Task: inverse folding
């Protein structure tokens, strides 16, 4: 494995997490300061550090979290950042790169699991040792086709060979001793599932891609583990301070019961976009194969918490109302948690509903102002990603449609 190449790419001199910051253009707004954050980078460029460990559909570019933290660094070492829609932990990784303590909450065990692996220091030798064990276990597995092909779900989404190998790999991982090395190898397993399935890799919700070429499960897994180890080593090489970081499996409507490592000087918040998609079905393939590794298995009160996610799609009248109500309640929680001067950065975007613009950005700002926050700045953002055929039909497309806006609201508790 060539770790040195990664290390060279990732030295303190080049600071990749600063190289891919948005290009900021200040706009003098009529009432409050405004800026445009242009992010002209590709997903591979933005996947430095541990950001590329798991493809979490619907995450924001690493440079959004990076820029927020550059603009608002922690005032002292007793401060921490909270991400109340943490997803795969992009904010937590960026906080760790800057030595800032962070806490996330998410209702999805998969999201919390990915976040925690991405920010936990590993011993690469231990991971590679355990990986050799997995290789042996995998080679010795005998799985009967009936075991994996009796489920219609499996037959629909996986070839016979892939299903058999995924079951063997799952069984090879289960007996490993619990700990960060095992979690790392489990995340690598979860990270290849979409790739070895019959579904499009690039579409958010799984859809069958009839012309997808079958991929070998073991080869995909081995490559994933090696890439992850190289990236993790490079990440660890530039962290100066192993600042506390943890994503809790928890509902953000109850933020006050979360244990924090400091004063929450900044809450970063990236809710699912209205009329975009619900998260749980997007990861149905990973939930299926990840069942033996669920972190909520031993905590009955948390089991199935992913079903409590905010509803965002489709934006019927009822769902839109519930959506704004959830935002109102969760930002009231955030407000109660913070001290005077605390910051809230909401990353959110407009959408269209029945071809009519739904000004989510503005409505969210109004909700936060009603709670007591003061709107301090609006950063509009443009992202040059390719657009999915299915998931992005109704949301801001960032490509010159002046009406639909995607942005970062910066609010402060007076
Ligand atoms: C837009 S994603 C956040 C992505 C994240 N910024 C990243 O880069 O990975 C929104 C997340 O909110 C989570 N979520 C939805 N409802 C929630 C709730 N009630 N409490 C906590 N998290 C929730 C979803 O599971 C999803 O992971």
Result:
């Amino acid at each position: 494995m060539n770790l040195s190449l990664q290390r060279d790419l990732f030295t303190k001199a080049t600071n990749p997490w600063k190289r891919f910051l948005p290009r900021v253009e200040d706009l003098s707004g009529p009432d409050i300061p405004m800026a445009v954050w242009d992010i002209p980078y590709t997903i591979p460029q933005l996947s430095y550090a541990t950001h590329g460990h798991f493809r979490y559909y619907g995450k924001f570019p690493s440079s959004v979290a990076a820029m927020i933290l550059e603009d608002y660094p922690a005032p002292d070492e007793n401060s921490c950042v909270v991400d109340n829609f943490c997803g795969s932990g992009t904010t937590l990784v960026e906080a760790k790169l800057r030595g800032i303590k962070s806490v996330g909450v998410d209702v999805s065990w998969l999201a919390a699991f990915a976040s925690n692996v991405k920010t936990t220091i590993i011993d690469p030798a231990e991971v590679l040792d355990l990986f050799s064990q997995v290789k042996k276990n995998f080679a010795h597995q005998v799985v009967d086709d009936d075991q994996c092909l009796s489920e219609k779900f499996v037959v629909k989404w996986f070839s016979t060979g892939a299903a058999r190998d995924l079951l063997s790999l799952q069984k090879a991982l289960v007996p490993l001793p619990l700990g960060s090395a095992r979690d790392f190898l489990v995340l690598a397993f979860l990270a290849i599932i979409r790739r070895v399935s019959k579904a499009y890799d690039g579409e958010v919700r799984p859809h069958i891609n009839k012309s997808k070429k079958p991929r070998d499960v073991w080869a995909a897994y081995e490559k994933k583990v090696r890439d992850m180890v190289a990236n993790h080593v490079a990440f660890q090489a530039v962290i100066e301070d192993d600042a506390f970081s943890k994503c809790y499996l928890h509902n953000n409507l109850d933020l006050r019961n979360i244990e924090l490592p400091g004063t929450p000087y900044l809450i970063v918040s990236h809710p699912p976009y209205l009329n975009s998609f619900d998260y749980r079905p997007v990861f149905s393939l990973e939930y299926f194969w990840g069942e033996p590794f669920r972190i909520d298995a031993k905590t009955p009160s948390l089991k199935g918490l992913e079903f409590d996610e905010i509803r965002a799609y489709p934006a019927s009248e009822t769902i839109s109302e519930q959506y704004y109500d959830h935002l109102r309640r969760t930002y009231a929680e955030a407000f109660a948690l913070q001290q005077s001067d605390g910051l809230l950065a909401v990353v959110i975007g407009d959408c269209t509903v029945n071809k009519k613009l739904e000004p989510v950005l503005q409505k969210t700002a109004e909700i936060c102002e009603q709670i007591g926050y003061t709107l301090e700045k609006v950063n509009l953002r443009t992202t040059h990603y390719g657009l999915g055929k299915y998931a992005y039909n109704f949301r801001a497309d960032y490509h010159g449609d002046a009406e639909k806006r995607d942005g970062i609201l910066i609010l402060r508790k007076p």
In short: Residues 217-238 form the longest helix (22 residues). DSSP finds 16 helices and eleven strands in the chain. Residues 124-236 form one domain. Confidence is low (pLDDT under 50) at residues 1-13, 386-401.
